[in-house]
Automatic annotation (TrEMBL):
Protein's recorded name: Short-chain dehydrogenase/reductase SDR
Source species, domain of life: Bacteria
InterPro entries cross-referenced by the UniProt entry: NAD(P)-bd_dom_sf (IPR036291), Sc_DH/Rdtase_CS (IPR020904), SDR_fam (IPR002347)
Pfam family, one: adh_short
GO MF entry, a single one: oxidoreductase activity
Taxonomic source organism: Oceanococcus atlanticus
Membership in a protein family: Belongs to the short-chain dehydrogenases/reductases (SDR) family.
Annotated keywords: Oxidoreductase
GO cellular component, one term: membrane
Transport recorded as keyword: no
Length: 265
């Protein structure tokens, strides 16, 4: 079991949505927090909402241009000491068809959604190994398991997270480092508003399914409960979870036909 009390937790993408929910729920459990995102003013807003703002530090950064993850880790450790839990939550989605998605857009999404979590995890894991304990939490998505139109780069990044961190668990899980992959479905966040279009601009709209989705703090609570139980993976979704099971158990041609009929934005 992982007890969050008095643990130092570093959360990326903490300026809103699931990341904000994770910060609020962890603070209520007595954790010390380091919150990262690009928008410093929003990080400060989240800090003030936390149960004990004095135990919350903000560390603004842009994961799309992460030049020195080891230096960033040293900055994170300078607030409250070594990182006990790293939560790789920051993400960037898309709303473009495969042939309309340039390699540059694909690289931007992979940089934030895959390479940044890998880089930050590699920065914190040596210290965790030395201390004999630590926990890496990766906020993936149902798209880490399924395929759908207009999500090719996003799904590729989320699938890659599962491959990488499942392998890391095999290598390091018996040496004191826990790994939890959380796979949210529709959560009421700004993910679709910030999703990239073919020209690199933001989509700027809330998808209807996302607008009606699970409240971020409910999603965050379910993630933390899974972390506390050292679960290796947790699906945090409503009715959309059926697509994950269809992908797992249906013959691939049937799943493809099912996905092709879905209305996506």
């Amino acid at each position: 079991m992982t007890d969050l009390t008095n643990k130092t937790i570093w959360i990326t993408g903490a300026s809103g949505g699931i990341g904000e929910g994770l910060a609020l729920r962890a603070s209520a459990r007595g954790s010390r927090l380091v919150l990262s995102a690009r928008r410093e003013a929003e990080l400060e807003r989240v800090r003030q909402r936390c149960h004990r703002p004095q135990d919350v530090a903000i560390l603004p950064c842009d994961l799309e241009s992460l030049d020195d993850p080891d230096a960033l880790n040293r900055q994170a450790e300078s607030f409250f000491g070594p990182i006990d839990l790293l939560v790789n939550n920051a993400g960037l989605s898309q709303r473009t068809l495969t042939l309309d998605t340039s390699v540059d857009i694909t690289r931007r999404i992979m940089e934030v959604d895959f390479f940044a979590p890998v880089a930050l995890s590699r920065a914190v894991m040596p210290g965790m190994l030395e201390r004999g304990h630590g926990h890496i939490v990766v906020v993936s998505s149902v798209f880490g398991h399924i395929a759908m139109a207009r999500r090719s780069a996003y799904a590729a990044a989320k699938h890659a997270l599962h491959g990488y961190f499942d392998c890391a668990r095999v290598e390091l899980g018996h040496k004191g480092i826990q790994f939890t992959l959380a796979c949210p479905g529709f959560v009421s966040t700004q993910v679709s508003v910030n999703a990239l279009m073919a020209d690199g601009q933001a989509f700027g709209e809330v998808d209807p399914d996302i607008g009606k989705g699970m409240p971020p703090e409910v999603c965050a609570e379910r993630i933390w409960r899974a972390v506390e139980k050292n679960r290796q993976e947790v699906l945090v979704a409503g009715k959309e979870a059926i697509a994950v099971y269809f992908k797992r158990f249906l013959p691939l041609p049937l799943y493809t036909a099912f996905a092709r009929r879905l209305k996506v934005h």
